[in-house]
Task: inverse folding
């Protein structure tokens, strides 16, 4: 309410009326106010601001409550409309204080209008009607019970009118783009553990810390306060290898070699621009420990290895929550921590920590440290919509040659329930080796076949005859167009790798890779080798699923198989197990659609 005192003379009243008219013309505070002039007392009038109406909707319904279940996060589409024929200023607020473990704010995304701010939203009139804005409002709830939050709207004619009620709190901006550190720290769902001064750990069973980089799904494990680098581990096993032959030390091991291999078959070689994205001189604490406590630092005499790629140590696994954390993915996988001179700690399928002799084959979850300047440009950190990194998120790939893409990226290839493959490598120049993500299925069940009468794969043994015959011709697995994309004659390497032997022997005569093994075969379709990229990766763990590799466990009796939980073992070739076909696609295969993620795999054709 605003009041202006008047003298009794008519001329003074006339002057005030003229001032009001002038203000109406010029705009400003009174621009679209509705006025009522009344005689309150002698010598006084009142100027009353008319009410502004609005419409508030949540997910398309006339609603002002946001309800989120326990330990989850939800994005709401909130719209605000001004049906008036004059300008109004509006703003969202939430009522009452938030419970501990609950967070609310708005996100700026492409296609969403100006977000709420302290200066308010100016909804201009359009012709004779008002306008509207749409917002993404995010609520995160880390408590063990459902929460409901009431939204409100403050209304006024200008900035000064936008006073919130006593129990109202303005929405804050949530960081959805920025450095990886900033975005991860800004999301309450990640439940950061600051107990260690050297690493800030992401904890909980389902934090929003998924990142897609270089054809692989990763999880953020920790942030280093010293340089703001961010530690990532792959969500799934990438392969299975023997850790070493006689020593549990990481330095000089088969494991260190596999992770940092810069040949065409190596993990590091197949990462996208590693010098741009990751710290090439990362330090890995590989100290031998008789327990799972924090390993000694370099200053304290700990064993520190400098490499681009490493593994998690057992302490880091525990600091995220161990078997109750997101790192428990129901797989077997190696840690970098030695228990004694010949055994290392592993994480078992149930998330428990055990020890195992280094001569055995188990899964590998590579770990890298992202450089501090790497930015998130898209995604929301969920498994279905992981964060995407600047420089790794490509758009408009139509017409791009498939042989320029990255190990791990998904391809729509095959028919029906067998229609998902993954890039393995570009082992043969110009070609793209791919493999079925899961073993072949028939009517929903995994197909099983004996390997053959001996340990050597060929196009005429039991499994090779199927892959180079029925698999290509019966129309249940591939279309004719897809068969024509496959290179006719690929060399498949059949070197043996026994327990305690180096994975390189599957392809080379010695661990120095001086020459290729002479034990080979030529076929259109084959299988992956033991220790090859993607040989241990599945979309998810499936019990009782064991897939053949090409690799003999010795020269006479056994062939290597890999359980879907990452366990590597030797089995006699006459036993029936599952099949993951591997093929080389021709150099002229191009991408027609998709971005290579699991949610949007590449569509391909011959160019």
Result:
């Amino acid at each position: 309410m605003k009041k202006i005192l008047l003298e009794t003379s008519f001329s003074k009243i006339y002057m005030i009326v003229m001032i009001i008219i002038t203000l109406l013309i010029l705009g400003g505070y009174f621009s679209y106010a509705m006025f009522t002039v009344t005689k309150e007392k002698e010598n006084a009038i009142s100027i009353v601001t008319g009410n502004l109406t609005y419409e508030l909707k949540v997910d398309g319904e006339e609603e002002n409550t946001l309800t989120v279940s326990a330990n989850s996060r939800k994005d709401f589409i909130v719209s605000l409309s001004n049906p008036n024929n004059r300008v109004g200023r509006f703003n969202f607020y939430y009522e009452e204080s938030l419970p501990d473990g609950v967070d609310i704010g708005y996100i700026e995304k492409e296609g969403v209008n100006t977000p709420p701010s302290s200066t308010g939203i100016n909804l201009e009139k359009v012709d004779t009607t008002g306008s509207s804005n749409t917002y993404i409002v995010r609520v995160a709830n880390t408590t063990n019970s459902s929460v409901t939050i009431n939204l409100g709207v403050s209304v006024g004619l200008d900035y000064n009118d936008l006073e919130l009620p006593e129990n109202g709190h303005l929405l804050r901006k949530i960081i959805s783009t920025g450095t990886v550190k900033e975005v991860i720290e800004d999301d309450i769902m990640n439940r950061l553990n600051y107990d260690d001064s050297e690493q800030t750990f992401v904890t909980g069973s389902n934090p929003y810390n998924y990142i897609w980089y270089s054809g692989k799904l990763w999880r953020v494990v920790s942030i280093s306060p010293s340089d703001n680098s961010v530690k990532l581990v792959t969500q799934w096993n990438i392969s299975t290898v023997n850790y070493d032959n006689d020593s549990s030390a990481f330095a000089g091991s088969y494991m260190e070699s596999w992770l940092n291999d810069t040949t065409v078959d190596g993990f590091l070689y197949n990462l996208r621009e590693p010098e741009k994205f990751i710290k090439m001189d990362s330090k890995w604490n590989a100290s031998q420990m008789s327990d799972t406590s924090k390993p000694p630092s370099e200053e304290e005499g700990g064993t520190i290895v400098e490499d681009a790629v490493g593994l998690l140590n057992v302490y880091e696994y525990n600091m995220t929550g161990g078997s109750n954390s997101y790192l428990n993915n129901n797989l077997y996988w190696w840690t970098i921590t030695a228990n004694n001179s010949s055994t290392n700690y592993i994480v078992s399928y149930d998330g428990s920590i055990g020890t195992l002799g280094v001569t055995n084959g188990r899964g590998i979850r590579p770990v890298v440290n992202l450089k501090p300047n790497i930015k998130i440009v898209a995604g929301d950190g969920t498994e279905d919509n992981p964060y995407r990194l600047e420089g790794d998120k490509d758009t408009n790939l139509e017409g791009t040659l498939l042989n320029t893409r990255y190990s791990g990226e998904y391809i729509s290839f095959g028919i029906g329930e067998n229609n998902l493959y993954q890039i393995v490598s570009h082992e043969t120049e110009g070609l793209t080796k791919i493999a079925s993500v899961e073993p072949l299925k028939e009517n929903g069940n995994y197909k099983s076949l004996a390997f053959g009468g001996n340990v050597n794969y060929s196009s005429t043994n039991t499994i090779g005859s199927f892959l180079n015959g029925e698999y290509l011709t019966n129309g249940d697995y591939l279309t004719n167009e897809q068969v024509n994309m496959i290179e006719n004659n690929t060399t498949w390497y059949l070197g043996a790798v026994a327990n305690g032997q180096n994975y390189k022997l599957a392809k080379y005569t010695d661990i120095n890779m001086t020459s290729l093994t002479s034990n080979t075969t030529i076929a259109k379709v084959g299988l992956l080798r033991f220790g090859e990229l993607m040989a241990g990766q599945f979309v998810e763990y499936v019990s009782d699923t064991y897939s053949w590799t090409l690799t003999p466990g010795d020269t006479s009796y056994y062939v290597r198989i890999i359980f879907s939980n990452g366990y590597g073992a030797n089995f006699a070739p006459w036993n029936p197990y599952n099949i993951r076909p591997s093929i080389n696609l021709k150099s002229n295969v191009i991408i027609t659609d998709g971005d290579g993620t699991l949610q949007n795999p590449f569509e391909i054709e011959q160019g």
